[in-house]
Design goal:
207 residues, mainly alpha, 11 helices, 2 domains
Length: 207
Amino acid sequence: MLIAKKKRRENIAEYILYLWQLEDMLRALELSPERIRQTLVEPQTELDDQQKEALWLWYTDMVNLLRTEGKERSGHLEHTLHLVADLDDLHRHLLASPVGREQGYDRVFAPLAAELPRLKTAIAGKEGDPTTISDMEACFRALYLAMLYRLRRNAAGEDDSSPAADETSEERYVRDVLEVVSPVVARLAAIHGAAERGELDLYKDMD
């Protein structure tokens, strides 16, 4: 909870990815309040009893949301999806506005632009429709898949700098394209934070 609040305050992109990881962690614990307390709360020895209780209640609130939204097995909470949609709106605004050019966002985005159709196809998979995936949804899903890939490789004691024998071409592509995805998301998150803090006027010099 404290980590999430800090990330939300400092970096919206890290906050979204943190919550996505937490969703999967709660699912791995079968959304069990008892297992969540034992695994995620009690080991936090730096917290007092009141703080632990607040943390446990926050986790159980997330569990309730996952159940309410029918996402016990997969999917992301609407809260995070709305944030991704807001960032996609900001992304499109920056590409069309003077402030985006002033902040150099168009230059950062240029290397990714040509890759987006292929990235969306890789993210959608054989059964999905890439045309329904927004630019920022593709970016965040790519970042999260790569994060899961690294965690899986590290847990298996494998070197994540070399390709795995069972790595699909889609996984390999998503991993390779991160060098153009990561700077875009980092820059977008920085601009979002500056605007939220009142340090940047997103509509400056617009007619």
